[in-house]
Every structure is written in structure tokens, then in C-alpha cells.
Write a structure and sequence with these properties.
Layout: H1 2-13, E1 18-23, H2 25-33, H3 35-41, E2 46-49, H4 52-60, H5 71-85, E3 88-93, H6 96-109, E4 114-119, H7 128-138, E5 142-146, H8 151-159, E6 166-169, H9 173-177, H10 186-190, H11 194-201, H12 206-209, H13 211-225
Parallel strand pairs: 1-2, 1-6, 3-4, 3-5, 5-6
Helix pairs in contact: 2-3, 2-13
Bound molecules: uridine-5'-diphosphate.
């Protein structure tokens, strides 16, 4: 976490354009199925392991990563930095009411952050360019995109060239910041069962969670057959 934060702050101070993906097993499986999405992910400047599945999978395949870096924690750390330096931040995504609560939480918890602009995540595909134009006009240093995958990464890939900022897909993080969804308690996170907490909060996620055993099976298959794909 410290390493990526230091790197991102240095990039931000240098005025670079950056695309950060926080990958979890669902994203990996979606990219395996959809070559266009895979290609977009491969254009990311940084990919972090959001999810214990990625950390364990990387270790099993002999290419370990130091630790889990979730989109939510990374966003919070960058907001902290932005608050201290009065940086401009654009918030894109979530339902209108959730976005309003997210902005209220930012004003309260990170009073130094300059909210350069915001837009909810429910716009038609033909409105995307107009949303991107709003982001450009806002001149943000950080753009947090909470559209869920693969939409958020596809959007960032398509429009990141409009303005040199740090662009990051943050999934359901606005819902957590807004207080609409609770993050798992620290002890659940430490015991690597955050996914179970999310499932208990929202049993409709069960279908999506089946990605985890599928992902694990693939990892073990690769490990024991030593295949590359
Ligand atoms: N979302 C959105 N536009 C869409 C679809 C989803 O803004 O067209 C938002 C949704 O309201 C939620 C987030 O994207 O805030 C996705 O949340 P989810 O929990 O699925 O993401 P995860 O963290 O699991 O990737």
C-alpha cells in the first residue's frame, strides 16, 4: 500500500495521466471471457490486488504480491492526500442519492478536498462523451469512477486522454463512503472473509460469488498443469 501510494503521489505531482485497476477474481474471470476487456486492463499503468483471492492466487502461481490493496483503501488514502493539499477531485458513479451522500461524507471527512465535479453513474451510452467533457472542464487531479466493472475501466480507457489525472475504478466504494453499505469489520478483513460479510449483507451476490470457486479451480489447474493461459 505504501509503495503504490508513494508512486501515485509522485505521478500526480509530476502531472502524469494514470489509470489504476484494482483487480479481484471477478474482474480476472470477466477479462478471460472478454478479450476487449482484457486489452483495456492491459493498458492500466498499475494493477493492485483488490481481494485476497488475487494475493493467494499470485502466491500459488509463484509470482507473489506483497499485500492486498483495495480500491476503497486506496481511494481513502488519496482523498486524505487531496484533503491536505486542496487537490481537485471528480466523483463519477453510483445512484444520484448515494452520490449526494458520498459528497456530503467527503465534505465532512476530508474538508480540504476540492470537489471539482460529480456525475451519477446512470447515464446512457450516448451521454458518456458529454460526461467526459464535464470531467475535462473540471480539471481534476483525481477521478474516482464507481460504475462497477467492466464499465468503469472501459470508460476510463476511452476518456482518460481528455485530461491528465489519476483515474481509478472504485466499484462499490461510494456506497461504503456514503454509509449505504457497511465495510466488513477489521477482524473479518484480517481473517480474509470480507467476501462472506458482503454476501451476508446482500445474499443476491451469491451468483457473483460463484466466481471465487471458479477462479480458485483455475488457479489450481494452472499450478498443477503449469499452463500459461
Ligand atoms: N453503478 C453505476 N452505474 C451502473 C452500474 C453500477 O453507477 O450502470 C454503480 C452502483 O450504483 C454501485 C457501483 O457501481 O455504486 C458498483 O457496485 P458493486 O458493489 O457492484 O461493485 P464492486 O465493488 O463489487 O465491484
Amino acid at each position: 500500500m505504501q509503495e503504490i501510494v508513494a508512486q501515485l503521489i509522485a505521478d500526480h505531482q509530476a502531472g502524469l495521466n494514470r489509470f489504476i485497476v484494482t483487480a479481484n477474481p471477478e474482474i480476472v474471470l470477466a477479462a478471460r471471457k472478454d478479450p476487449a476487456y482484457m486489452q483495456v486492463l492491459q493498458t492500466a499503468d498499475y494493477v493492485t490486488a483488490d481481494g485476497i483471492g488475487i494475493v493467494k492466487g499470485a502466491a500459488l502461481l509463484g509470482n507473489p504480491v506483497p499485500e492486498r490493496v483495495t480500491g476503497f483503501d486506496l481511494m481513502r488514502t488519496l482523498l486524505q492526500h487531496a484533503g491536505l493539499h486542496h487537490d481537485r477531485v471528480f466523483f463519477l458513479g453510483a445512484k444520484p442519492a448515494v452520490l449526494r451522500q458520498t459528497l456530503a461524507a467527503v465534505r465532512k471527512q476530508y474538508p480540504g478536498v476540492v470537489i471539482a465535479g460529480s456525475h451519477d453513474g446512470y447515464f446512457a451510452p450516448d451521454e458518456a462523451a458529454e460526461v467526459a467533457a464535464q470531467i475535462k472542464a473540471a480539471r481534476p487531479a483525481f477521478v474516482f469512477v464507481a460504475l462497477g466493472f467492466p464499465k468503469q475501466e472501459m470508460f476510463i480507457h476511452q476518456f482518460r486522454d481528455q485530461t491528465p489525472a489519476l483515474w481509478m475504478g472504485v466499484g462499490g466504494s461510494f456506497d461504503v463512503l456514503a454509509g449505504v453499505v457497511q465495510r466488513a469489520p477489521q477482524s473479518w478483513q484480517e481473517h480474509h472473509v470480507e467476501w462472506l460479510y458482503r454476501l451476508l449483507q446482500d445474499p443476491r451476490r451469491l451468483g457473483r460469488m460463484m466466481a471465487l470457486p471458479h477462479y480458485l479451480t483455475l488457479i489450481l489447474w494452472h499450478k498443477f498443469t503449469n499452463k500459461q493461459n
